[in-house]
Amino acid sequence: MKREVYEQARARTLEFFEKAHIVLTETEKANVEVADFGLNDLENTGLQLVTYVNTDRVCAKEMVLFPGQTCPEHEHVPFGNWEGKEETFRCRYGTVYLYVSGEPSPTPKAQPPKGSEQYYTVFHEIVLHPGEQYIIYPCTKHWFQAGPQGAVVSEFSTTSHDEFDQFTDPNIQRLPTIED
Amino acid sequence: MKREVYEQARARTLEFFEKAHIVLTETEKANVEVADFGLNDLENTGLQLVTYVNTDRVCAKEMVLFPGQTCPEHEHVPFGNWEGKEETFRCRYGTVYLYVSGEPSPTPKAQPPKGSEQYYTVFHEIVLHPGEQYIIYPCTKHWFQAGPQGAVVSEFSTTSHDEFDQFTDPNIQRLPTIED
Questions:
Q1: Cβ contact (<8 Å) for B86 and A52?
Q2: What is the CATH number of the domain that holds B125?
Q3: Which of the four, B96, B103, B144, B150, has the lowest number of CB atoms within 10 Å?
Q4: How far apart are CA A82 and CA B137, in angstroms?
Q5: Which of A91, A156, A131 shows the shortest CA–CA distance to B25?
Q6: What is the pTM of this model?
Q7: Within an 8 Å CB–CB cutoff, is residue B23 touching chain A?
């Protein structure tokens, strides 16, 4: 994405962290990760995050979704001796609509971003408000979307190997690039 | 500890979570863990916590220390096939003085609780303010104390087996009991 898009998204992300009373260091603020998944449609499909720690055993992140923004359908699969990522999402601010493989919910509250419906499955719906959480085990396809206020979500997980996340949409590149 | 002591500490813990803007469910609020380490001196030696998640791979907790309260010296050792707990402390509110094995700091800001000095080592000092964090690896003796405002600290870790924590003070019982 363009540097300008990145910087605007970074500033907006910090506003959401402030609303959620999440305190960050200056280094963390300067290095917010903005993932547009290579789709160039950040407003609708994207995720903003700060990784607090990612060792070879444990990872913790703080994530921001802008109002109505979707993190697209993907799963964390095993590779080599690694079992695949297990993650717990805990909502801190706003509302998150989370969809995980399982019995489809008949009237889901969120819709996939327009034009990309073919890459999203109507899974079981979990709605997370502040203080509510959900564990996502490996090999569980999932996607999630913020409600109209946006959302701040803590993630507690095993090691993140984001580059190996498997997205349903073949056009997605998980690791962001910034063009100056 | 007596039920009355527990309930007072629980209510006080919730005040600190409010100051730190940490949102908890009613179930979490009702089940705050108050650890007095069997020493019956909670004001000086103790720890209050809410465990968000503790699976066989990942654990996340939110901890409260009252002003000047100390979590006593201990370490997380391997057993069986388990490597021992790795934990990251991230300060959310107040100040934490953390002491970990390593070159002793010449003028530590915190002192062990009176009468228990023999169970504390003058380790390397790390001072954590909101947004600051530190990783503690297995087999690292450590203890920590809140500054005068108290402290709220997030812990991101591998699985917790609190019952196997090894405390320097042989009088300590990690798992709390409540007498009605």
A1: no
A2: 2.60.120.10
A3: B103
A4: 21
A5: A131
A6: 0.96
A7: yes
